[in-house]
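Re-run with default settings, no changes from the original entry. Doing this only to confirm the output is reproducible before filing.
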Amino acid sequence: MRVGTTMPETIALAAAAIQAALPVAEADPFRPVFHFRAPAQWMNDICGALHHGGYYHVFYQFNPFADGCDWGDVNPCWGHARSRDLVHWEHLPIALAPSKAEGNFQCVSGSATHRGDGTPMLFYGHTPAPHGPRQQWAALPLDAELQTWRTLDIGLAPGKSGVPADITGGWTDMFVFREAGRTFAIFKVAEGLVVEAQNPELTRWQAVGRIPAVHGECPNFIKLQNRWLLLRSTYPMTYQVGTFDPERIAFDLDGPDGMVDYAYGFASPPDVATDPNYYLDSSGVAVCRFGAPPAHSANRGFYATSVFADAEGRTLLLGWVGAFESKGWNCCMSLPRVLSLDAEDRLIQTPVPELAALRGQHVRLHGIELADQRHTVPGIASNTLEVRADFVLGTAQSVELRLRDQSNGSVAVRIAYDGEALDANGTIIPQILAADPRRLTLHLFYDTSLMELFINDGRQTITRVAYPSSSSPLEIEVHAVGGTARITTLDAWELAPSWPTGE
């Protein structure tokens, strides 16, 4: 006798739960309007992404039954959406959902790729008991539009295919990558375990080695400009550049390491000498290897990424952002970022140029002389903004850019730079990467309650929730502290929503 719901039945229940939550979600004035987000309820990790049939497809961990991260009785699904341009998105039916009748209580994070014949394939964490050891399963589409999927067991389970029988029960986040005509995968909390596909259909796998540098959640491993880039969801997210040798199954750490995003940066680092959960990166910032985010990290979040190459050959990064103070919905996806390496192999992230399609009212200023008094940028005010400004510090001790509520003067975003450290709403980067520390370029996106900041053409980034005091338009304000400074050029745009009203 069947006990519990099948995957199609769970998907039908999820669709009803989403419809019930939509009115609450759509009524929130602080819900982002040009970032991708689930139709309602709780959105989690970016599970996978690929370009197929003229569309960018994004899959994400999704709880349509709750607006918080208490998963309740019905556990994670995989949401699905597509876009022609990485800006305007269309929600599609849920791709994967638990099937308790068939012994799966969770569909947790993984990745997406193409098989050799061009067929899209998903890899996800399958949980055969409510809190039991996970397995890795796959899914294949049942239609050309990728609207429905069938699941299959690929033999990756504790004690099978060379996977240690005593592997940590929570191992998952399978990320598939290729080199030298071979297909491999890595995982979270698996002590760097590497498996290799044994057939072109990617249905048989075997453990072949370990890469000790893989730790944290949602590891991403991809070739970039003939180097190899490892991204790790730690607190904050970190990266390592090196060389991958598929014959030795070895990642040689012969390149720089650093922060992917300072969303979970520390103003006061823990004692890394006594706390084994933390280590110091090469810039001296404390990083949590794995576990819960720091207690003081409320209203921050850039984590659980997915990296893929598109049809143009670009390497694109998508990240999860949360958590918000909201009802009926929570969390969203970062703006898509193009990845590259600079001359020293350090990671560069820039927002995709397609976002320019959202630009509306535009103001450009040249040669703004700054002193201790506030300078408000005329002719523009909105709660969806893009700002790019080039500062020269001059004699000033520091410079500031603020977004200020037009109705009451309160500050929603404050970015301050003193020639060494940068502070964005309390998130501190202790050392800005710059050829000339007296010059600074800021590229800021603000979306009703969320800021993404790209510093010095993407050499460093900060993403965090930044609530205003009201839904009134925000003005842009700049000034210098303790001397004079100059803005050589400032461009500001009001940005249009990418979502239709009442989607």
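The longest helix spans residues 7-26. The mean pLDDT is 91.
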